[in-house]
Amino acid sequence: MSDKVFITELPNCDICKSAEEKAVTAKYDGLTIYGSWAKMCKDCFQDYGKGLGIGQGQELILKTSQKEVK
Ligand SMILES: [Zn+2]
Question: Are 49 and 30 in contact (CB under 8 A)?
Fold first, then answer.
């Protein structure tokens, strides 16, 4: 699966950070409608993301969330 990236720590959303200077956890890393790449939260990805797929965008998934810890 190439549209998902497993990482240990989620980065902050680049768009929220530059637009409103607030720290929002990013859920996607992808191409924006402006032609540049950015880490995006869910809201920003829906507004500015080009979509998921090779060369477009990837969903960021926390590695720890894959473990079944109960
Ligand atoms: Zn955002």
Answer: yes
Q: Pick the more confident residue, 21 or 38.
A: 38
- Please report the pLDDT score of residue 68 as a whole number: 58
> Are residues 20 and 41 in contact, defined by beta-carbon separation less than 8 angstroms?
no
Predicted pLDDT of residue 20: 86
How far is it, in rounded angstroms, from Cα 24 to Cα 12?
5
Q: Could you tell me the residue ranges of all domains in the chain?
A: 4-66
- The rounded distance, in Å, linking the Cα atoms of 51 and 26 is 15
Q: What does DSSP assign to residue 51?
A: -
| Centre of ligand 1 from the C-alpha of residue 43, in Å | 6
Residues 56, 51: Cα–Cα separation, whole Å: 6
**16 CA → ligand 1 middle, Å:** 4
